Amino acid sequence: MKRGATRQEVIRTTQELIARNGIRAVRVDEIVAMLGISKRTLYEMFADKNDLVAACLEEMGHMQRRRIADCHCGETAHPLSQLRWLIDEYVDSLYVVERSFLADLCRKETFAEQFAEHREFWMQELCALFRTCCEEQLILPEIEASVFVRRVMETLLELRLAGTPREELYLFSRTILRGAASRQGVEFIDGR
Questions:
Q1: Which residues share a beta bridge with 139?
Q2: Could you tell me the pTM of the whole model?
Q3: How far apart are CA 47 and CA 64, in angstroms?
Q4: Is the pLDDT of residue 72 over 70?
């Protein structure tokens, strides 16, 4: 007889399912069958499916924040290298899940708060590095960091939802960053 699943195992299994199939396609029956637990056991851990999905989204956000924090510790790389890396991380975060998951997240009001927190986290991180690049005269001074970052993030999300391959998003973001760079920034980008 299989032992009961832990809360973390339920979250991990559900994350895999929603990442692969989207939020709407995930069924509680499928989760409990995969884990070998009863619905009652699942509902003792989570109030309902939305509570479970919210816990999954929160965990996904924590994992991303830890990864970025780990990379920031002791970071001595060139600010443009850091910014390019972080933009690539944002692109990668869009490909951890299927497009249907992102579409569900954008449309479903139930998870609007988590989606807004996710966007705000990325805005803050990217804007901070963008401003550092501006201070070091690597970005054109007339570009407003928050406007630039918001538009790039929106465009990358739209491209992902449209089915654009990851490599094209990398290329797009590097091209846009090069367009925003000062002469010194362009020389750095082109020299890499």
A1: 181
A2: 0.82
A3: 25
A4: no
